[in-house]
Specification:
By secondary structure, the chain is mostly helical. The chain folds into 4 domains: 271 residues, no CATH class; 124 residues, no CATH class; 128 residues; 164 residues. Helices cover 69% and strands 1% of the residues. It starts with a helix and ends in a 5-residue tail after the last helix.
Length: 714
């Protein structure tokens, strides 16, 4: 059986209808069964199955990592849309809110209405193997062969997936004990209707990338089907293949029907697929842009899912695609010029999206945060800050109404209340939340991060007098991060009064952006760093150099040249070197290479830091200089010391080239081509890191280059 990705590629590039037919044969039973579970209606389930494969047909150009997982998610979404009107959704949510007690599940009938929604919330790696094992009835050995993994790895993934699925079900009020896997394995098999097999077969012949099928291809009478002789033959053959037992399925499309349909034949049929159809596939992002629909769509987008989407859009470099996605998922209108300007790195792009979401749809944004899966992540903190900054007088009562559920609802409401009475809200948190718990620490830290600017000084003094240990370490640094920009003198006085080195280190590090980058108070910061030692001193120096280099490179380089401590030098150089201007970096490298030794080699390798940007010049130039040394003249795995450090740094640089910064994959390819590797396998391993990102932007160019580099793209 050929990989799903290859079948999709053949269908999109060559119009190979039989390749698509093989995908239908492999996954249609799972899709239909999922639709049956969700809709509880046989007729609706058949319509949903057809819409799902129509959606796959005209999105065959996309880089879908796991076809079964993608199909399951789309099936679940479309089935939900088919059976739930807006009134029913509100009624069900209201009933769910009133029903607080949990139900212990002991049979499949109780479990089936919720299992698909819970499974959709799992990470894709776990969701994919659960779908293949439990819903498509594949053995662990078969899944391992399809994914190129060991059976033991698949077994571990299934165990992890079942445990996380059990947790998700419990969140929905269903308690399932150790017998969850048994219930999944014992689910009844829903037979695929013979008529549906024929209808799905027609989709394969419609041609890739089309919008919808014409009414002719959606008719089922013998007279209408007889109107196209080739269509009859293909559908009949495919129907036979779909209804054959999976254990006897052919291993390729050519074995299934004797020969592969030519591209010319596919093109001859494709014109039939140019008309509109009332049963066209409905994507989630195409729903009406209303506050309710935005909330529904955002709830399905976890923090990790949002971050992944941002990385994929940056990697694609497609401004038009990014505009459509953001309009459909969040109701955000960006101009093409704004998109092109933002699509240069994932963090900058993410910030632009979150800022627009907070400004345009604050209530939907807060509801999304309440359902977040990572309240410590960048997306949560940035979005919350943008909402409060752009809507300082947000209606608290309306927030209570709209933000009706979610594991972090209380945290979101607390932050909104704190904008009017922060000390009262902090007092409430301290008196109602048990000391020493993660929830209390999170609440205290979040309040500090979003504290109203006008009351920073009062809060800092209160914290110094009333908090201690982890609570002070959580509150004070976040408060000083913003206070340093508006009141540097007060911030420095507070820092000088801190006697605990650990709290001073983290507080000083957080305040560095305001003190150094915004206010230029370098000498004051250096005097505070002099009281620190060990790792605490190293972290503070690294942050100092990373901020200082952005405002005064000449002064920073003069200071570095006067350093006497090797530890201080090692802490500052990796954050400094990649951010220097081209001329300053050249002079610095000339000087460093003239006095190179093994410890300095290690420090330079640590400077190959793609997270600091400038990857096309800074990091690659450092690699080039290092490879001029005999001991580092070639790159390969399985070495020791600096050779192994350089190998890991080059791999990370290749892996971050497009996804983290939107860099040109063509330039990355030229760079990798210029390197000397110990073995062809080592070269292919580094090339694989780039190929995984490049294929999202230009599959054909990426595939051609990867094949030349020895990458296994199957």
């Amino acid at each position: 059986m050929r990989p799903d990705s290859e079948l999709l590629h053949r269908y999109h590039r060559l119009g190979d209808a039989l390749a698509f037919a093989e995908l239908v044969r492999a996954h249609s039973i799972m899709v239909h069964a999922t639709a049956c579970r969700v809709t509880q209606n046989a007729a609706l389930a058949e319509e949903v199955a057809q819409e799902v494969f129509l959606a796959l047909a005209h999105r065959s150009h996309e880089a879908i990592l796991s076809v079964p997982a993608w199909l399951h998610r789309v099936t679940w979404v479309k089935a939900q849309n088919a059976v739930r009107g807006e009134a029913r959704r509100r009624r069900m949510e209201h009933e769910a809110a009133l029903k607080a007690q949990e139900v212990e599940v002991s049979d499949w009938e109780q479990l089936s209405p919720e299992v698909d929604a819970a499974m959709d919330e799992l990470p894709e790696a776990l969701r994919s193997v659960l779908i293949e094992h439990f819903l498509e009835r594949r053995s662990q050995i078969e899944i391992a062969a399809r994914l190129g993994m060991s059976q033991s790895s698949i077994s571990r993934l299934i165990a992890q997936g079942v445990q996380q699925l059990r947790d998700k079900l419990r969140e929905r009020g269903l308690i399932v004990g150790a017998g969850l896997a048994t219930l999944l394995e014992a689910q009844p098999v829903v037979a695929l209707p013979a008529g549906l097999s024929v209808e799905l077969g027609k989709i394969a012949l419609s041609g890739p990338g089309v919008g919808q099928l014409p009414p002719l291809l959606l008719m089922t009478t013998k007279t209408q089907i007889a109107a196209v002789g080739l269509l009859v033959l293909a559908c009949t053959t495919l129907s036979y293949q779909l209804t054959k037992p999976s254990s006897t399925a052919p291993t390729s499309t050519s074995e299934a029907v004797g020969q592969t349909q030519s591209p010319a034949a596919a093109k001859a049929i494709s014109p039939l697929a140019t008309q509109a159809s009332p049963t066209a596939a409905l994507r989630l992002e195409d729903l009406a842009d209303t506050p309710e629909s935005r909330m529904a769509k955002l709830r399905k987008l976890t923090s990790s899912g949002f971050d992944k989407l941002m990385r994929e859009l940056v990697a694609s470099g497609d401004a038009a695609l990014a505009r459509r996605k953001l309009k459909g998922l969040m109701g955000l209108d960006f101009t093409e010029e704004e998109m092109k300007a933002a699509l240069h790195d994932d963090k900058g792009f993410t910030m632009a999206v979150l800022k627009r979401l907070a400004a345009n749809h604050p209530l939907e944004a807060l509801a999304w945060l309440a359902g977040s899966d990572d309240p410590n992540g960048f997306s949560f903190w940035a979005t919350m800050g943008y909402v409060l900054e752009s809507h300082p007088d947000i209606n608290v009562a309306e927030v209570y109404t709209k933000v009706s559920s979610g594991p972090y609802r209380d945290l979101v409401l607390s932050l909104v209340r704190a904008q009017r009475a922060p000390m009262a809200e902090l007092s409430r948190v301290l008196t109602t939340t048990q000391a020493g718990t993660a929830a209390r620490y999170q609440a205290i830290r979040s309040l500090a991060a979003h504290w109203p600017k006008r009351q920073h000084a009062e809060a800092a003094q209160w914290a110094m007098n009333n908090l201690q240990g982890d609570e002070l370490r959580g509150f004070l640094p976040e408060l000083l991060y913003r206070h340093a920009e508006t009141s540097p003198d007060e911030t420095l006085d507070i820092l000088r009064s801190i006697t605990d080195p650990a709290i001073l280190s983290v507080s000083l590090t957080r305040a560095m952006r305001g003190l150094v980058q915004k206010k230029g108070r370098v000498s004051d910061v250096l005097s505070l760093i002099d009281s620190l030692q060990g790792d605490q001193r190293a972290k503070a120096l690294a942050e100092l150099s990373g901020r200082w280099v952005r405002v005064d490179q000449k002064g920073l380089l003069e200071w570095i040249n006067q350093l006497e401590s090797p530890a201080d030098f090692d802490a500052t150089l990796p954050m400094t070197l990649p951010q220097l201007t081209k001329d300053n970096r050249k002079h610095a490298l000339d000087s460093l290479m003239s006095q190179i030794d093994e410890p300095l080699e290690s420090t330079l390798i640590q400077s190959i830091n793609p997270s600091l940007g400038g990857i096309a010049e800074a990091a690659t130039e450092i690699v080039h200089r290092l490879m001029q040394l005999p001991q580092l003249s070639s790159i390969g795995s399985g070495q020791k010391g600096n050779q192994e450090l350089l190998w890991k740094a080059v791999n990370q640089l290749a892996a971050d080239w497009v996804v983290s910064h939107g860099g040109s994959p063509q330039k990355a390819a030229q760079w990798i081509d210029s390197l000397t590797f110990r073995t062809p396998a080592d070269k292919a391993a580094v090339a694989t890191q780039l190929y995984r990102q490049w294929k999202l932007r230009d599959p054909a160019a990426a595939g051609n280059w990867a094949a030349r580099m020895g990458v296994n793209i199957r």
